[in-house]
Fold each of these.
Amino acid sequence: MATNAPLIMRIMALSINTAKRAGVIIRDVLKQGDLGIVDKGKNDPQTEADRSAQRCIIASLTKKFPSIKIIGEEGGSDLNVCDDWLVGEQDEAFLKQICPAAWQDAKPEDFVIWVDPLDGTAEYTQGYVEHVTVLIGIAIKNSAVGGIIHQPFYKQSSGELGRTIWGLKGLGTGGFTPVKPPAGEFIITTTRSHSNALHQKAVDVFNASKVLKVGGAGFKVLQLLEGKAHAYVFATPGCKKWDTCAPEAVLEANGGTLTNINGEHYEYHADVEHVNSRGVLASVGNNHKELVEKIPLEVRQAVGAM
Ligand code: AMP
Ligand code: MG
Ligand code: MG
């Protein structure tokens, strides 16, 4: 059904099911116990779950959409995967949604799909599994437009494990109930494993009522969307386009904003540098510009934003 749906809708619908399948792989690797940890750099681990989840996602999306550019965190992947990892079914409920007019005619060459098969790897290896997400971000002509954030370890009230959230600009979000953060407070969510003195200066300047330190860009944006925090501050380079593409699209589909610390959106074309060198500032509500202006000059200069 819906094979005639616009390309963005078919990519989103397959990405929803692919992210869920990757989530099962991530749970299975943890259950089986041998994480196969490799250090990609300082504070940058990779596990068997990152590698296998990426192969599942990239092989499934490539098989269905061979002409679309896909960039995954874990580099070039062996696409020869077992049938059990190859997802071909699209999420039928998503396909019932109406595609926003702006994306209806987007062609394969307009797209780049940014894949973070496991966001929050450090936390995954340390037992903070609720911080882990699978991120599939869909860019059209340079901008983050659609995103899937899957939480493999989210406990549903039914007892079932896993939750899948989607967002498409112009359409909205699904898979969760958005909540506004509490009025009269200012809560920041930020990194728990990649801080430094300048980043801390940027956090301190907000004089927040609470600072939550959690792993992953996906989980921090979910905290904004579920009313747990007002702003996500990361005033240092280190996170990459695959960390921010899906979270930016989901957040902005729900009225929030995700930019660098200078208030500018990142670009997501295929040749863009992978690192988000000017940090991340994300917020809900409509005071994003005020938040940007609070970031100290010294911090902006340090990341080349001034
Ligand atoms: P965090 O907020 O520290 O959990 O980081 C969000 C995402 O950016 C995760 O995927 C991290 O692995 C990545 N990241 C942030 N800073 C660095 C860094 N200095 N080196 C490598 N990866 C980083
Ligand atoms: Mg990540
Ligand atoms: Mg990752």
Note: The chain has a mean pLDDT of 96.
Amino acid sequence: MLAKLPDLPYGYDGLAISISEETMRIHHTKHHQAYVDKLNVALDKLAEKPDDLQELLSNLDDIPENLRQIIRNNGGGHFNHSQFWQVMSSNGGGQPSGDLAKMIDSNFGSFQAFVDCFSESALGLFGSGWVWLMTDGNILTTPNQDNPIMTGQTAPILGLDVWEHAYYLDYQNQRDRYVKSWWNVVNWAEVENRYRFAIIS
Ligand code: MN
């Protein structure tokens, strides 16, 4: 497996109502690219070459100790960002429908209550990390580039990057303004696809 920086499904200015072109360009071509590059250096040193990143990250204990943390950080960074770009869209925002809407309503009472709860988790997360919506409706946070799959859980269906590099140029210290604006670019159709795939598999 050779990690590769995925193309964005929109232009760098595609999310400009929420995230500036400059932030998107740096986030994708510098931050994400660096995770990819460092992951490839580490993968190259593995005696047994993995063919699936999700499986590799789900079994970190199997990785030799001298490479484990590097792969955790940079493999996690590659995995998390690859999903992050997909769950946003230049035609995003609004609300989910179908089974996902039902799941959210039954867990939170309403879409707005879910948004409030997820946003509160994002604001409450100290330092750098991610906020996740799980298939069962749980909201989790992880530090650094960790992902719930690293602790034996299923892959999240939605994640929000709350590292300062994701918003500092646009919002400086005001993470609350970033999070509030981010809902306008969430690609609910993609999150729904991930939810449907998760519940049938
Ligand atoms: Mn990031």
Note: Helices lie at 21-44, 53-58, 65-86, 98-108, 111-124, 168-171, 175-182, 188-200.
